[in-house]
Amino acid sequence: MNVILLGPPGAGKGTQAKRLEKRHKLVQLSTGDMLRAAVASGSELGQKAKALMDAGHLVPDDLMIAMISDRIDQPDCAGGFILDGFPRTTAQAEALDSMLAEKGLKLHSVIEMKVNDDILVGRITGRFTCAKCGAGYHDSFQKPKEPGVCDNCGGTEFKRRADDNEATVRTRLEAYHAQTAPILPYYSDKGVLKAVDGMAGIDEVTDQIEDVLGAA
Ligand code: AMP
Fold first, then answer.
1. For a FRET experiment, which of 79, 112, 149, 201 has its CA 20 to 30 Å from that of 119?
2. Which of 81-115 are b and which e, b meaning 16 or more Cβ less than 10 Å from the residue's Cβ?
3. DSSP alpha helices (H): ranges in the chain?
4. 113 and 196 in contact (C-beta within 8 Å)?
5. Which tens digits make up the pLDDT trace of 39-88?
6. Taking a C-beta distance cutoff of 8 angstroms, is the pair 16, 95 a contact?
7. pLDDT tops 90 at residue 215
8. Which residue of 4, 15, 34, 35 sits with most ligand 1 atoms within 8 Å of its CB, as the best mutation to test the pocket?
């Protein structure tokens, strides 16, 4: 089963993708995570992407399309994957369609996570993750049970993304509305788009996604 999670930054795509990974034995393909790894490794792609990411702008389509195509070819994706953060432009959506056709793969569902803009800045600027296991937390909505200790692995180091500051978040939201939201009609015209209420609690959103996956 190959699934796309679509939605603005902070909609909860990463959180839900991690749950789908466990429940359905799928692989989360987060293009943001891949780019952050490329930046950390100092690769050519990372060097090209860093300034754009820091400013909240999108990385060029050709780089993203090549990156995701290579990743889908890895053996661990054979059992199905969740795209989180890709496609982000109509050109990427079209390239994904031809890429999947060439690879003999199909999309099961495209799930839109609907969230109002006004809550996204607060969601994003408060979030942090465990440096050891990647578990996600939030200063107000999801604190570790014991302050400073990861509920999941007991790790005591946490990190925040460089682009999760208010100015960059606003640019990322503009990029979403200008470049990514136009993909929604592209998928609804094909009849594969289903929406869930991303404003609901995390478990409720997971239930809605499961309903969509079960019904498709
Ligand atoms: P994310 O972790 O999905 O919020 O992505 C972080 C940043 O990585 C974005 O603000 C973009 O600069 C870049 N990025 C991630 N995915 C894409 C994509 N599909 N196309 C272009 N840029 C991307």
1. 149
2. bbbbbbbbbebbbebbeebeeeeeeebbbbbbbeb
3. 13-24, 31-41, 44-55, 61-72, 90-103, 117-125, 166-175, 183-190, 202-215
4. yes
5. 999 999 999 999 999 999 999 999 999 999 999 999 999 999 999 999 99
6. no
7. no
8. 35
Catalytic residues: 13, 88, 127, 161, 172
- Residue 116 token pair: 């109002």
The structure tokens 């100015």 sit at 167
Cβ proximity of 182 and 90 under 8 Å: yes
Beta bridge partners of 112: 6, 195
pLDDT tens sequence across 151-200: 999 999 999 999 999 999 999 999 999 999 999 999 999 999 999 999 99
Which residue has tokens 């990190």? 159
Which residue's alpha carbon is at the smallest distance from atom 6 of ligand 1?
32
CA of 1 to the centre of ligand 1 (A): 23
Amino acid, res. 166: E
Under 8 Å between Cβ of 8 and 115: yes
| Ligand 1 cavity residues, CB under 6 Å | 9, 31-32, 35, 52-53, 56-59, 64, 85-86, 88, 92, 163, 172
Tokens of 186: 């592209």
